[in-house]
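**Sequence, structure tokens**
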Amino acid sequence: MIRPASAEAETMQKFSLDALARELLKRAADSAQGRSSETVIGGHEHVLRQTVIALLSGQTLGEHENPGEASVFVLRGRVRLRTDEASWDGLHGDLIAVPPARHSLEALEDSVVVLTVAKL
């Protein structure tokens, strides 16, 4: 994880999502699962969580429940968010609001997304 430059910067943090995306794609390529992720803000014990996720082409985050209000911002590549009733394709720069339903996310090409979740 990218850390603040000093202890004084604890209240403000700056991340290079571009650099992290490159790093996570390399890790995904070395992973048997073809994916890699890192939470950059918040976590399970917080209301807000932002996680950068790299998926190699063809890899899927299997169907799962929506843990709260969520969005997927596509940093690189092309992804498909799917529910039983619909699907949405996202390209670089697109923001997809995750519906309050079971869903999956598939990488249509090597991709990196920022998943933002605010638990209800």
About this structure: The first helix runs from residue 17 to 30. Helices lie at 17-30. The two ends are 26 Å apart (CA to CA). Residues 38-119 form a domain with the Jelly Rolls fold (CATH 2.60.120.10).
